[in-house]
Amino acid sequence: MSSAEKEQGYPTPQRYYAAAAILIGVVMAALDSSIVNIALPNIADSLEINAATVIWVANGYQTASAATMLICASLGSRIGERRFYKIGIIFFTLSSIGCALSPTFSILLTMRIIQGISYAVMISVGLSLYRVIFPPQSLGSIFGLNALAFAIGTASGPVFGGLIMSYLSWPWLFYINIPLGGIAIYFAIMALGKDTTTKSGFDFIGAVTSALAFGLLTISVDQIGRWNDILVCFLISLSAALIVFFVLWQKQAKHPLMPLDIFNSKRYSFAVLSSILMFIAQGIGLISIPFVLQYTYSYSVLESALIFTPWPVAVAICAPLSGKLSNKVSATQISTMGIIIFCVGLGSLALIPNNTSYLDFIWRVAICGIGYGLFLPPNNKEMFSNVEEKHTVTASGILSTARTAGQSLGAALVAVMIVVLSKFYGNFGDYFSDYAFGLACLIAGGASVASLLRISK
């Protein structure tokens, strides 16, 4: 593909088929992150395992994807992004069939780990492929659609999971991926085309270090409150030490897994920092809302789900609009406005009165969704517009890793607050919303500062 063709992207309708292959993969990956949780008790009964063990059906997927995200981004640039994506979507679909047919827990866990790695393969190169498929002036729009696809998958997971478990058995949670995967595979083979350039060499030390660091981080965060506190603190500290070693190693590695010169662009660096802080704040908010609704205000699980719904709905509406708008207006200004709105939503949740109604929660939750939807696509466009083409796949991997690590840190902070508040007040529910949403608002405020700093860069 010549430089002129790269500037114009794929011709139509090929670009739409190619984008569909990636968007369907995003929906499948997001769906499988949330659809299983509601069925864990049924899976435990069916496979005759205890509750603590069945948790790993969800954890195996998340840990495998977190541990291999940067590795997959590096491999993608060496194997070829388009070829690598095809491998990812094929293995994701096949492992879904494997999950559905699993007769034992060990086989199901193995299939879920393969699913998680396949998820990392798809997501680590998926965003970078948009830069090949679409011309620069259309990137905002496709990033908006990508955020919409992720929101739909995440929000519909519990709903589809509940419906399937009401009328069918748990293997159907995975069977539903077969038609979606088949369509995505067809579009990928038909429209993505062949790779023209690849890199050589691989950073094995960086790969092992990053896998251990992010794998340990995900596991230890998930086990806060379950495992011994000293063990959890040790694992988190070990993860932090491995991350420091990983960064230091990247400075001298011959073929670094994450080339540090990607951060030479200040606009890119501040966009990444904004993303990490926003993912942490979002992680705190998403996990805190159910606790506040059910423990502090005594809402039922169904009522809590309905109250939370405006968040993903607002993201689904605002993300495509902000993405399209960023093609005409400064992406940085739009994403900064989104962070500020997100801060307002979190702040309003922190200040919510004791005597409240459904509506008091709904409009506050909706503001958070609006802010996040306005932030994400323009910020992603800003990231990819300020990185060299040779680092596009790495940028995609960094963004995916930032999401996973940021949300894990957000979850860890929530768990720590619950433990500390329970110790000092006996019942964490009385003060939890003040501290949780207040901290999330403060972190999002840091994201707004980072975002504002790049306006002048």
TrEMBL record:
GO MF term (any one): transmembrane transporter activity
GO cellular component: plasma membrane
Domain of life of the source: Bacteria
Compartments, record wording: Cell membrane
Membrane topology, from the record: Multi-pass membrane protein
Residue ranges occupied by any Major facilitator superfamily (MFS) profile domain in the UniProt entry: 18-457
Sequence intervals crossing the membrane: 16-40, 52-75, 87-107, 113-133, 145-166, 172-192, 204-221, 227-249, 270-293, 305-322, 334-352, 358-376, 409-426, 432-453
Keywords: Cell membrane, Membrane, Transmembrane, Transmembrane helix, Transport
PROSITE patterns (UniProt xref): MFS (PS50850)
Keyword Transport set for record: yes
CDD domains: MFS_MMR_MDR_like
A UniProt-annotated Pfam family: MFS_1
Main location: membrane
Family according to the record: Belongs to the major facilitator superfamily. EmrB family.
The protein's name in its UniProt record: DHA2 family multidrug resistance protein-like MFS transporter
Source species of the chain: Marinomonas rhizomae
